[in-house]
Please model this.
Amino acid sequence: MDNKQNKLTKSDINKVYFRNIFGLQWGWNYEKMQGLGYSWVMMPAIRKIYKDDPEGMKKAVKMHLGYFNTSQAMSNLIIGADMAIEEEFGKDSEDAVVSLKTGLMGPFAGVGDTLFLAIYRAIVFSIAAYTALEGNPVGLIVPVVACFVVLFIRYKFTYLGYNQGKKIAANFADQMIPITEGAAILALTVVGGLIPSVISYKLGLSFTLGDVTLSIQDMLNRIMPSLIPLGIVLFSYWLLGKKKFTSTHLIFVLIGIGMVLGNLQNMFNVLFGLFQ
Model:
């Protein structure tokens, strides 16, 4: 992308920033989460970068419609870096951009939710509430001022991400494949770490022989902790990828399987109890 007419200006970046403030959560859904909003946020940059390449523009829009979910405040860093990489490499940047988004959205979500939700709300609204209870009108102003501070930080984050993305594109153009692979590995590691913390299904089957009680779940844990959650994730991945299920279809399938297996487990426990 050597054409200077396709280079982003400060006005283009600011348009993306304002869209991100108001539109990242638009169209939020359980399948793509912030994916639809992300694509809409990126449109000013996409139109500028790919204005002479209609096929590249279609490919970029389709890419950004993919799954994305992170803390809104931290998303500015990802979007800024995304703009810089696409500006430099155009439609050849797909693997790098997808890996960047996938690798950073998880860690940034944790950091952003802690800083800009938990800590921010606890401090700002506690100060505002106690000040207001004392009859001081400053309590009404504190949240407004804090809001503008966060907006300013997000503005700086956008340009920080953009400038860092430019450095990556300029200094590591020959090393994009290792960077992409590293981001992909980071993304898989984050997803793998989330499995046992998000999915907590446990088998309730147990056998009692005399004074000895044998738990199936304990046996599985000795083989591999969180084996069942991993199996659920792999099964879901197989349905979504190989069988082209939607997330809604998958939810109903998992609910149905859970109901069937739960009833079978109860029946088995009753039958085993009768023969003891």
About this structure: Residues 201-274 form one domain. The first strand starts at residue 206 and ends at 209.
